[in-house]
Structures are given as structure tokens and as C-alpha cells.
Design goal:
The protein has 164 residues and is of the alpha+beta class. It is 23% helix and 38% strand. The chain contains 3 helices and 10 strands, in the order αβββαββαβββββ. The strands form 2 sheets. Strands 3, 4, 6, 7, 9 and 10 form a 6-stranded mixed beta sheet that branches. A 4-stranded antiparallel beta sheet has the order 2-1-5-8. The longest helix has 24 residues, at 9-32. It comes from Streptomyces glaucosporus.
Length: 164
């Protein structure tokens, strides 16, 4: 049995419909892709973790309420820190251009914006709280800050106390 392919008006209509469908599917696929947010990385010794922003609004100011809401969000990103370890924070250049500050819990520990992609801190006293107690976990947040407004995003990483 022999099959013949028709090249009449019907086949042109089918080819046009297939081409339109493929183009539409391609546009839908592209619109579903989001540009990844800049990343922040925390390194302790030879271990490091990296994360995208918990909250991110490119080129927009963030209200203090929005920042606090983002700082309180849960994260799956954590790193273990021992007493006296050096904590190294690295951010993408896009974050450094705007400036950034560091929060522990809900309070900023660096009030002047950092304009570099890298900053180191000693972990001494990191798990001690103002009331004299200590904690086994500290929430570290990196927040975009230009000196007058919170901008861009919030990156969250949990710091877990190394068990003796």
C-alpha cells in the first residue's frame, strides 16, 4: 500500500498551525523562566554554602516591614560554625554595587553599607545573646542597603553552633 503526501492548501494550513504552535510554546517557556537572583555565600573553614535571595525586588526600595518579614522567613541553607572560626561572607558584584549590611536575627550588626564583594567576621560571641544566654542557631541575613534605603533583596543563611 502506498501513501501519498498532499501538497495542497490543507498541508500549508497544517504547517502554519504547527509553526504558530511551536512559536507560542517557545514564548510560554521563555516567560516561565525567571532570571536568577544574585547569590550570597558564607564560608567557614573549607565549608561553604550559597543561596539566592529569600526576597528580591530588583532596583526597588524595601520597606523595613518587608525586610523584617524576609529576615524571619525559613531557609534550608545552613552552615556549622565553631567558636573562634572565621566567618567569610561573599556577595555577587551586583549586591556590592548597591551596598549591603548584615543582620543577626532581626538586628543589624553592621550599620554602614559594605561596598565590597567580601567581608570577614570572627565568630567569637556569635551564639551569645544580650541577656547572657546562648543559642545553638543564629539567623544570618545579608540585606541590600545603599546607606539610606534597603534595596534589592534579603539573603538568609542559618548558622548552626558546632557541637563539642
Amino acid at each position: 500500500m502506498t501513501h501519498t503526501i498532499s501538497r495542497g492548501k490543507g498541508s500549508r494550513t497544517i504547517r502554519t498551525a504547527v509553526a504558530i504552535g511551536a512559536a507560542t510554546l517557545g514564548l510560554v517557556a521563555l516567560s516561565a523562566c525567571e532570571k536568577p537572583t544574585p547569590r550570597a555565600t558564607v564560608t567557614v573553614g573549607s565549608d561553604s554554602v550559597s543561596t539566592e535571595a529569600t526576597c528580591f525586588e530588583e532596583d526597588k526600595a524595601l520597606t523595613q516591614d518587608k525586610v523584617l518579614s524576609c529576615v524571619q522567613k525559613k531557609t534550608d541553607t545552613a552552615i556549622t560554625v565553631g567558636e573562634g572560626d572565621m566567618l567569610r561572607i561573599g556577595v555577587d558584584p551586583e549586591i556590592a554595587e548597591t551596598g549591603w549590611v548584615v543582620f543577626l536575627g532581626e538586628r543589624p550588626v553592621v550599620s554602614e553599607p559594605i561596598g565590597k564583594t567580601y567581608r570577614s567576621f570572627s565568630s567569637d560571641g556569635l551564639f551569645s545573646q544580650a541577656n547572657g544566654t546562648s543559642s545553638d542557631k543564629v539567623q544570618l541575613s545579608i540585606v541590600g542597603y545603599d546607606g539610606s534605603k534597603y534595596r534589592g533583596g534579603v539573603w538568609r543563611i542559618d548558622l548552626d553552633r558546632e557541637k563539642d
